[in-house]
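Note to self: keep these together.
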Amino acid sequence: MLLPGGVLMDDRSTVLDSMSGQPWARHQLDDVVPMRPLDDVLLVAYTATASREGASEYKAQISSTYVRRSDGWKLVLHKHTPR
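Structure:
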């Protein structure tokens, strides 16, 4: 995962630990564009707007890339660019 501020999370345990914080109170996805450059590769680009209780609204352009493996689709890259 590549996140704002130069944050790089490159192992599963770090990514899972990052999800233990306060959940989003509200979120919305807009301008969702799925792309299929190869049969076993899926890229999804979208705008996300979200907020947490007591925090400023967060808005970003996000892209997520998945590859298909024998046991299903796996996320291989997730990048946020703040707006």
